């Protein structure tokens, strides 16, 4: 489990550096609608106060269904603050971003194979084998 958290951290940093990271529920939904084949990985994040947000839970259900239908690996993270520390504010405006949904897209470079993404794909596959379709990952400190 800790290995998956470390891999997710590495993937988020790498994807952001390469410009392959989309943050936000609405931005992610738009991207999945326009170009689902380009989405490589999905992260859904909540904090305790988000658990009662019915609208957010409905969005999560729809995103999860879309990811399952399009063979996109998906994980949950229960610490938006740790995610914000990794991803940081929006580069355009410097404003905090909606980090409830983060998509990692395939870069235009065909040869890019991220070892962290491969580890996470394997982790998700192993989780599905034990009927955990959206595993929860704990990010490292």
Can you walk through the features of this model?
The chain has 141 residues and is an alpha/beta fold. It has a single domain (4-133), classed as Ribosomal protein L30/S12 (60s Ribosomal Protein L30, Chain: A, 2-Layer Sandwich). Helices cover 47% and strands 16% of the residues. The chain has 5 helices and 5 strands. The protein has helices at residues 2-18, 25-34, 54-69, 80-87, 115-129, and strands spanning 21-23, 39-45, 73-77, 101-105, 136-137. It has a 5-stranded mixed sheet with strand order 1-4-2-3-5, sandwiched between helices. α1 packs across α5 (115-129). It is globular. The mean pLDDT is 87.
Task: Give a brief rundown of this model.
This protein has helices at residues 2-18, 25-34, 54-69, 80-87, 115-129; strands spanning 21-23, 39-45, 73-77, 101-105, 136-137.
List the helices and strands and how they pair.
Layout: H1 2-18, E1 21-23, H2 25-34, E2 39-45, H3 54-69, E3 73-77, H4 80-87, E4 101-105, H5 115-129, E5 136-137
Parallel strand pairs: 2-3, 3-5
Antiparallel strand pairs: 1-4, 2-4
Helix pairs in contact: 1-5
